[in-house]
Design a protein that fits this description.
The protein is mostly helical. It is a peripheral membrane protein. Its main location: mitochondrion. Pfam families: UCR_14kD.
């Protein structure tokens, strides 16, 4: 059985499960006042780190504030009040365009055989 046929076999299941999974993830993010892109780790992905450097400072500050608030809420074994949870927008993306641009530049550099200007080398 080819990969394409296997994918077609599971398409209905994925189409049924995807919105449910997104709803569960959104509910969990709302509890802590986070957005989906807040979960991207700049220490694990250099492209995310570079994208964060290119974003306006107020957007980065808002992200850092959301992360601090989520850590505080988590440490208190609590969650945001229900009225504040309703105001949260977990799937409003603020980094997607910048991150896509950084990844395109990274792919272009790879195709040209050049390294990333922001690449780290571990000893």
């Amino acid at each position: 059985m080819s990969g394409r046929a296997l994918a077609k076999l599971f398409d209905p299941l994925v189409a049924w499960m995807a919105p449910r999974y997104q709803a569960v993830v959104g509910a969990e993010l709302r509890k802590y006042g986070l957005r989906y892109e807040d979960l991207y780790d700049p220490q694990l992905d250099l492209d995310v780190d570079e994208a964060l450097k290119r974003l306006p400072q107020d957007v980065v500050d808002a992200r850092n504030q959301r992360l601090k608030r989520a850590c505080d809420i988590n440490m208190k074994h609590s969650e945001l009040p229900k009225d504040l949870q309703q105001l949260q927008t977990p799937f409003e993306f603020y980094m997607k365009d910048t991150l896509d641009l950084v990844k395109l530049e990274s792919d272009e550099r790879l195709a040209l055989g050049a390294g990333k200007p922001y690449e780290r080398h571990l000893p």
